């Protein structure tokens, strides 16, 4: 069961990154007027937030086990 939950967490991480990175790209583009800058911002952000979201999800899952 724990292995399944890790897979679900990983899948949710990647699908969320698609949505969130698209949002970041669009905001970067709108603010700067440059799609290149939007891509640059989204590229950096995708790496850092992918790991942060995964660990955030795992912390919540471990907390739920204790409650």
Task: Give the CA-CA distance, first to last residue.
Answer: 18 Å
**Outline:** elongated
The structural class is mainly alpha
Helical residue percent?
over 70%
Unreliable sequence segments: none
Relative strand content: under 5%
N to C succession of SSEs: HH
Number of strands: 0
Taking the sheet with the most strands, its summary is: none
User: pLDDT average, as an integer?
Assistant: 88
How much is the radius of gyration in Å? Answer: 15 Å
Number of helices: 2
Report on the structure:
- The chain has a domain at 35-67.
- Helices cover 94% and strands 0% of the residues.
- It is built from two helices and no strands.
- It has helices at residues 2-32, 35-66.
- Helix 1 runs antiparallel to helix 2.
- The mean pLDDT is 88.
Layout of helices and strands, plus pairs?
Blueprint: H1 2-32, H2 35-66
Characteristics of this structure?
67 residues, mainly alpha, 2 helices
Would you kindly provide a brief summary of this structure?
With 67 residues, the chain is mainly α. Helices cover 94% and strands 0% of the residues.
């Amino acid at each position: 069961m724990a292995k399944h939950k890790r897979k679900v967490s990983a899948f949710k991480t990647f699908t969320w990154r698609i949505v969130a990175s698209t949002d970041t790209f669009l905001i970067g583009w709108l603010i700067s007027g440059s799609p290149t800058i939007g891509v640059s911002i989204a590229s950096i952000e995708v790496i850092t937030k992918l790991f942060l979201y995964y660990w955030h999800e795992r912390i919540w899952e471990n907390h739920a086990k204790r409650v």
